[in-house]
Design goal:
Layout lengths: L4 E2 L3 H9 L2 E3 L6 E5 H5 L2 H12 L4 H11 L3 H8 L13 E6 L3 H4 L2 H11 L8 E6 L11 E3 L2 E3 L4 H13 L27 H9 L2 H11 L11 H10 L6 E6 L8 H8 L1 H15 L3 E6 L4 H16 L15 E6 L9 H8 L23 E5 H13 L1 H6 L8 E8 L5 E6 L4 H8 L9 E5 L8 E2 L9 H6 L8 E6 L4 H15 L5 H18 L7 H15 L3 H5 L2 H9 L1 H9 L29
Parallel strand pairs: 4-5, 8-9, 8-11, 9-10, 12-16
Antiparallel strand pairs: 1-3, 2-3, 4-6, 6-7, 12-13, 14-15, 14-16
Helix pairs in contact: 3-4, 9-13, 10-11, 13-16, 20-21, 21-22
Length: 611
């Protein structure tokens, strides 16, 4: 519909806006124009207001509404959804303690309790202390965010010192950044000039050959889904729409997932080059690197690399003097694990609440602004230059046990040397845990490990020789996912770990679909009661029913993986769960003792989401 004047009732204004049109003036006399022009500024403008005032004052929202001609109700819809935005003034010290998975293992709950005790009686306008979803520092747990600055690892005395400084002087030191670059076997340039793959492709225009190499390599998405990369790019390339997009999903927010932060720090150029190559091959002229806002240092590195490419003629309207065009920009997420879901990520870029879309259509057909869109993970883009520079044979030779390529894996939890390791695809999990990460502290035995954060569930120590690759982990009922290995020592309670993981999914549900919104809360209630020694007669059957409903009826993957942690614990550690219920005891001594078994269930209220 082109621009024009209409006389329509109020509700049609919002309905039409949702369908891709926007009311420029009043709802009774409407002038319509494409919605993209009006709403793409929403998130960035809200960030600017909050940066200036520390929150989003009502009068500033109204002024913004007038300036960009978007209803103030629409601004509230977005601002109230994302955890980064505040609608009330912040306290002098806003303290967020990461409570998920690795931080939970390493004492975050105790740290939060001790901080609350140390600052008991503090005024709310001076201090708030809350739990928060994963801060992406699993290799340096426990992590604490104070006024949006993340410190890790943090012990009680240091946290108290930082909080008192913020309350008294309003000052905080800059968190320490590891600035030195690490040489990686994945880098095909090793000190030589970067962007060789782009230079060759611009000169040869052999886009079919590049796609053939990607297909022969067997490269699959390394963010969790594992979809063949060449197939996705080929579908977008075949679309006749001249407007296409390339999007890099750098919003890793699942507990244990830290590899993309490492790649963006040490192989920034490969990620950028991979996106440029995707644009050239598919015919897309615009790329967006979507990064979580807790990765401020990596955002700066990406911006610097993009500016370097612009100066060198590798980005812009005439790449290296050719008639090829590709522009690239960084979009910083306003927060929330749900933004890692590809369609929710697109909604956020479009200035909407990050609620997943129903599929089909899929992004390769109707993605950003309903245009064909390639969405790949950071590591996937970084692999493309390796394949095109070094060749398919080299790439395949890097894997072991019948696999191809190198793999970045984050190892955290109960290990001596948590961190991100670059290993051949197909490496045994035992090598990662006991050799690379140094084994279990204190001479303890391995009890369980999550191959890829909570969405992969837990496997017992008896399976520690499983290989890190798609097929091997699928064969044992798990998945490689994003490569986030979380290790549990022999004295950990697996019911407690299942509850912690389920609470994370409950906290991060966008609430759009009933199965996920209600089912995740019910699952938390049941598991909480089990840790307290309670069980209703129908609980086990209800867990099965809930699991089936969540898998079948949830719109996106978040709801579908809610049952995975407890399903794996019931499969491999059922005796431990039954001990809680039938004997009202936690064999590991982690959960509430029998004396409190009749207390009210705890932890049913969702803590803060991402800082």
């Amino acid at each position: 519909m082109g621009a024009g004047v209409l006389d329509l009732p109020h509700w049609i204004c919002y309905r039409s806006a949702a369908q891709g049109l926007f009311c420029k003036h009043s709802c009774r006399q409407l002038e319509w124009l494409p919605a993209q022009e009006a709403v793409e500024l929403i998130v960035e403008e809200l960030k600017a207001v909050q940066k200036e005032f520390g929150y989003l004052p009502a009068e500033q929202l109204q002024a913004l509404s007038n300036r960009i001609e978007v209803p103030v109700t629409r601004l509230h819809q977005v601002a109230s959804f994302f955890p980064h935005f505040r609608l009330t003034p912040p306290p002098k010290a806003d303290v967020l303690v990461c409570r998920d998975m690795t931080c939970h293992l390493l004492g975050a709950d105790r740290l939060k309790t001790e901080l609350e005790r140390a600052f008991q009686g503090a005024r709310e306008q001076d201090l708030t202390i809350r739990g928060v979803s994963c801060l992406g520092r699993c290799d340096m747990a426990p992590a604490v965010s104070i006024n949006e600055r993340i410190y890790c690892p943090v012990q009680l005395s240091r946290a108290e010192e930082l909080i008192r400084g913020a309350m008294t002087h309003g000052e905080l030191p800059e968190p320490v950044q590891r600035s030195e670059r690490v040489e990686c076997a994945s880098d095909p340039y090793a000190g030589a000039a970067h962007y060789g793959a782009v230079r060759r492709l611009v000169q040869s225009r052999d886009f079919d050959g590049a796609l053939a190499s990607l297909k022969a390599s067997g490269l699959r998405g390394l963010g969790g889904a594992g979809f063949p990369t060449e197939s996705k790019w080929q579908i977008v390339r075949a679309q006749t729409d001249p407007e296409k997009y390339i999007v890099c999903n750098a919003d890793e927010s699942e507990p244990g997932t830290i590899k993309d932060r490492f790649i963006l720090t040490h192989l920034t150029h490969l990620v950028v080059e991979g996106m440029i190559l995707a644009g050239l091959i598919t015919g897309a002229r615009k790329g967006i690197l979507y990064i979580r806002h807790e990765y401020g240092h990596q955002e700066e590195l990406a911006e610097e690399e993009i500016q370097h490419c612009q100066r060198e003629g590798l980005l812009g309207p005439r790449i290296l003097g050719s008639n090829l065009t590709f522009e690239l920009e960084v979009f910083v997420s306003p927060g929330g694990y749900i933004c890692g879901e590809e369609s929710a990520l697109l909604e956020a870029i479009e200035g909407k609440r990050a609620e997943p879309r129903n599929k089909p259509p899929f992004p390769v057909q109707q993605g950003l602004w309903n245009k064909p869109t390639v969405i790949n993970n950071v590591e996937t883009f970084a692999h493309v230059p390796q394949i095109l520079v070094r060749g398919v044979d080299w790439y395949k030779a890097q894997g072991v046990n019948g696999t191809a390529g190198l793999k970045f894996v984050g190892v955290s939890g109960d290990v001596m040397r948590p961190g991100i390791y670059e290993v051949p695809m197909g490496t045994p999990m035992s090598e990662l845990i006991f050799q690379k990460a140094g084994g279990i502290p204190g001479g303890k035995k391995l009890k369980a490990f999550a191959p890829s954060g909570p969405s992969a569930g837990y496997l017992p120590a008896s399976m520690v020789d499983v290989h890190v690759d798609f097929k091997s982990l699928a064969d044992v009922g798990s998945m490689m996912g994003s490569g986030a290995v979380v290790v549990c020592a022999e004295d950990r309670c697996m019911l407690d770990m299942a509850l912690s993981a389920t609470q994370f999914f409950r906290n991060e549900s966008c609430g759009k679909c009933v199965p996920c919104r209600v089912g995740s809360q019910k699952m938390v209630d049941i598991l909480t009661n089990w840790t307290l020694g309670r069980q209703n007669l129908g609980d086990m059957a209800l867990v099965d029913e809930l699991s089936e409903a969540l898998k079948l009826a949830s719109i996106c993957g978040l709801g579908q993986v809610v049952p995975v942690p407890i399903a794996s614990v019931l499969k491999y550690f059922k005796e431990e769960v039954e001990a809680h219920i039938t004997r009202r005891e936690c064999p590991s001594g982690v959960c509430n003792p029998p004396a409190t078994a009749h207390a009210a269930p705890k932890a049913t209220a969702a803590p803060a989401r991402h800082a």
